[in-house]
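Let us work through a complete example step by step.
Step 1: write down the sequence.
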Amino acid sequence: MVFDSKKFIQNLIIAFSGIKIALKEQTFRIFLILIILALILSLIFKISFFEKLILILVICLVLALELINSQVEKILDFLQPNHDSRVKKIKDLSAAAVLISCLGAGAIGILIFLPHFIRILF
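Step 2: predict the structure and record it as tokens.
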């Protein structure tokens, strides 16, 4: 198998086009603001390498699930533009996956950053 650099660059352009589309989504932008805040806090508190690793992992997980959720919603809106209770259930399940990842990311954020805040305050 030969590496095709043109194909690789085309794939990157397509992927960045998807990110550009995602940036138009309000929820994705809110997540980015929270991610920037978490990254700033990680620099201020000088968290450990392992904590940075976990932080990056949950950031990627939340963003990836949000992209999949947006994709599912767009596909379903295309296939069934009218209200359908079956489509709603599918969308709700997709949104629930994002919610669970956000709750997990929030818990991890608390576990990482709360001790630093407590040390500063007390």
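Step 3: interpret the result. The mean pLDDT is 96.
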